[in-house]
C-alpha cells in the first residue's frame, strides 16, 4: 500500500505563511492522491493541533504532528512528536528530544539558507529532504548526493507558505495511512521523493 505525503508544510501559525489549517484539511480531502500531510510550523504545534481537530470529520486524510525547529545551527524537522523542544536548541538537543520520543528527524533543505549546512553530514537523522521547491536545483542536487553518501532515505516536501505552493512536492511512502506505519516506512527508506509537475 502507498500513501502520498507532504512532510513539510507551514500554516499561518508559523508566522510567515498564509495557509490556514482549514485550507490544508479541505485541500487534502479534495486532492486526488495526496492524502497525508505533516504540519511543520516554525517552533509551534498550534497549526497541527487545529488541523488535527478539523481533520477528525474526514475519514480519508492523515495529519502527522510535526515541527520545524529553528536551532542554533539552522532548521531541523521533527515528525511524530506532539511536544516541542525549547526554541533555543542545538541540532543535537533536538535529535535527542526526538529519539527519546520515538520521533523522526528530517533534515530540510540542508544547503539552502536556514539549512544546517555541513552539519547534515554528521547528525543522526532519519531522512534528508532531497527535493524542496524553494531550494535551487543545485542545492537539491547536493542534498541528493548527501543522502546517497550517508545512505539515508530521501524525502520531498513542498515547504509551502502560500496556497499556490501547496502540493508541489510530496513523498510516496510504502505504508498505509497510519502515522506510526508512515514514520516506520520513512525510517526504513521505503520512500520515493516526487516533484509534482502540475498544480491542481
Ligand atoms: Zn519549512
Distance between the termini: 23 Å
Strand content: 25-35%
- Please state the second-level CATH architecture: Alpha-Beta Barrel
CATH topology annotation: TIM Barrel
Radius of gyration over alpha carbons? Answer: 15 Å
Number of helices: 5
Can you identify the CATH superfamily?
Answer: Metal-dependent hydrolases
CATH class: Alpha Beta
Are there runs of 5+ residues with pLDDT below 50, and where?
none
CA-based shape: globular
Instruction: Give the neighbour order of strands across the main sheet.
Output: 7-6-5-4-3-2-1-8-9
Can you count the beta strands? 9
Mean pLDDT: 96
Task: Give the SSE string.
Answer: EHEHEEHEEHEEHE
Number of separate domains: 1
The quaternary structure here is: single chain
Q: Structural class, from helix and strand content?
A: alpha/beta
Write a brief structural summary.
By secondary structure, the chain is α/β, with parallel strands linked by helices. About 25% of the residues lie in helices and about 25% in strands.
Amino acid at each position: 500500500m502507498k500513501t502520498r505525503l507532504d512532510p513539510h508544510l507551514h500554516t499561518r501559525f508559523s508566522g510567515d505563511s498564509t495557509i490556514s489549517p482549514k485550507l490544508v484539511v479541505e485541500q487534502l480531502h479534495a486532492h486526488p492522491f495526496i492524502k497525508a500531510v505533516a504540519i511543520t510550523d516554525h517552533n509551534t504545534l498550534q497549526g497541527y493541533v487545529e488541523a488535527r481537530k478539523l481533520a477528525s470529520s474526514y475519514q480519508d486524510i492523515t495529519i502527522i504532528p510535526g515541527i520545524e525547529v529553528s536551532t542554533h545551527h539552522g532548521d531541523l524537522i521533527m515528525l511524530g512528536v506532539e511536544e516541542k523542544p525549547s526554541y533555543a536548541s542545538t541540532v543535537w538537543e533536538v535529535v535527542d528530544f526526538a529519539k527519546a520520543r520515538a520521533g523522526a528527524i528530517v533534515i530540510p533543505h540542508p544547503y539552502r539558507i536556514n539549512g544546517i549546512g555541513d552539519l547534515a553530514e554528521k547528525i543522526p537523522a532519519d531522512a534528508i529532504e532531497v527535493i524542496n521547491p524553494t531550494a535551487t536545483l543545485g542545492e537539491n542536487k547536493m542534498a541528493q548526493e548527501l543522502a546517497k553518501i550517508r545512505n539515508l532515505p530521501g524525502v520531498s516536501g513542498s515547504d509551502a507558505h502560500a496556497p499556490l505552493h501547496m502540493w508541489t512536492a510530496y513523498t510516496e511512502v510504502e505504508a498505509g495511512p497510519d502515522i506510526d506505519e508512515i514514520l516506520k516506512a520513512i525510517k526504513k527508506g521505503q520512500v520515493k521523493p516526487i516533484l509534482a509537475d502540475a498544480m491542481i
